[in-house]
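Work Package 3 (structural annotation) set out to generate three-dimensional models for the target panel prioritized at the project kickoff. During this period the team completed the workflow that converts sequence records into discrete structure tokens, so that structures can be stored uniformly alongside our sequence database. As a representative example, we reproduce one entry of 339 residues exactly as it appears in the project archive.
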Amino acid sequence: MYGFLIAVGVVLLLSIVWMVYRIQTLVSVVKGSDKKIASGSNKVNAFLFLVFLVAVGGLMFWYSIKEFDNYQLPIASEHGVVTDRLFWITMAVTGVIFIITHILLFVFPYKYQYKEDRKASFYPENNKLEVIWTTVPALVLTVLVITGWMAWSDITAPAPENAHVVELMGYQFAWDIRYPGQDKVLGDNDYRLTSAINPMGIDFTDQKSVDDFPSPKVVIPKGEPVLFKIRARDVLHSVFAPHMRLKMDAVPGMPTRFWFVPNKTTAEMRAELKNPDFNYEIACTEICGRGHNAMRRVIEVVEPAEYQKWLTEQKTFLQMNPALAEGIEVEVKEVAEIQ
């Protein structure tokens, strides 16, 4: 009902505006001013272009400086330095062009506003100018694209053999986390095995799965490579860890990956920010449904020795829920019990 009333109100408002315009046109015809090419409003509008340029341009610079710390977060990974450098180079190149073109865009209407004693110049072509403004942007964009491609290739290349593996599975509306056990290899999974007690669909008939364990948060060591293996159970999600400069989509049926080296522990970042409550986090950056905002997980970066100690304290899926062992072969159960 409210939507209908709003729609009716919008239609009435547009009708009134149109009627006012028609009345103004008829009045101009009666006065004979409709034959006049330029009026006083021409100068006003030309001046307002300059006002808009100064006001909005000033607001943009003021807000960008004021909120700089909120959108330029401290870097907590080695590759983050590379991606930030590429970002600011791209921002500098495109930003300078943006500012120059918009100054010209708003100054020209003022400088070349209509005047009865001035005639526009006819300037049909300039081949030299055409070549310059086609070649220069092409070369600049080529350099930016190639450097970006090189950085992206390094990030998405196979992880080092000693990388610590963490599996992240997104679903509406949470992240589940799985670590490999002592064998450092994740076991198989199969979506057909998904159930209330096995939400990740882990195949426990695979011996590599028996020592896998869950965690309520992502714990990773400082200064050592970490490989995120990412998948989704239902719809498209996206793993986003802003301080790590990490973002990778979680796609149903198409596992993805992202490896990085964290270089600041959580404790070090808390000291740097002077915020004892700070935590790194993973958030979902794909609108995946009504509970999208709930898809968050804490990342805790610790020293390598503390990480190894934490690993020894974790319980496997089978230890936490023996019912998961039902239906698996006796040999696998024996391996699980030994481990």
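Strands lie at 164-171, 174-179, 213-214, 218-221, 226-232, 237-241, 246-250, 256-260, 280-284, 296-302.
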